[in-house]
Design a protein that fits this description.
Length: 164
């Protein structure tokens, strides 16, 4: 039966339980992570949250940044368009590329993989089209220069906490 499948719980990379589901579509099967605490297969609702950037080697030092989550198509499409500034950062999910058409300010863009590890950070001026990153599943946007101050760089791991 299409769409029917099994779900198994296995420990994730940080000890969090991940649920792996197997779905059958015609004669093909796919196995995907459908939950967990690391952003694997994660879908967030629109709204406020906190971005936690681990800056220390052992994970003891962290920077907490106000976060606006854009998880719906409508919120992702609007993003930071029409704003003069942003307090903190905006998470677009799912996303693997952005543009700055009709933006009023340059922005920092961090591309995140499924495990919320930063795979690229770029600064984009207004009226630019960013290259898609194939491994990217989420994109963080902030005012230009802010991410360097937070310690967001390639290889850094971030965490998303939803308020509410």
């Amino acid at each position: 039966m299409p769409g029917a499948g099994r779900v198994a719980r296995v420990p994730g990379p940080m000890g969090d339980p991940l649920r792996w589901g197997t779905d059958t579509f015609g004669s093909r099967q796919r196995t995907t992570a459908v939950g967990g605490g690391l952003g694997v297969g994660r879908q967030w609702a629109d709204g406020p949250g906190k971005l936690i950037v681990r800056t220390g080697g052992g994970g003891a030092d962290a920077v907490t940044v106000p976060l606006e989550i854009a998880g719906s198509y409508r919120a992702r499409t609007k993003g930071l368009l029409g704003r003069d500034s942003v307090d903190g950062a905006m998470l677009l999910s799912p996303a693997n590329s952005v543009h700055t058409f009709r933006m009023r300010m340059p922005i920092d863009v961090a591309y995140l993989d499924r495990g919320l590890t930063v795979i690229a950070v770029v600064t984009m001026k207004p009226w630019r089209l960013g290259l898609p990153r194939l491994r990217s599943r989420h994109v963080l946007e902030s005012e230009a220069g802010a991410m360097a101050g937070w310690g967001v760089r390639v290889g850094a791991r971030v965490e998303v906490r939803v308020d509410g």
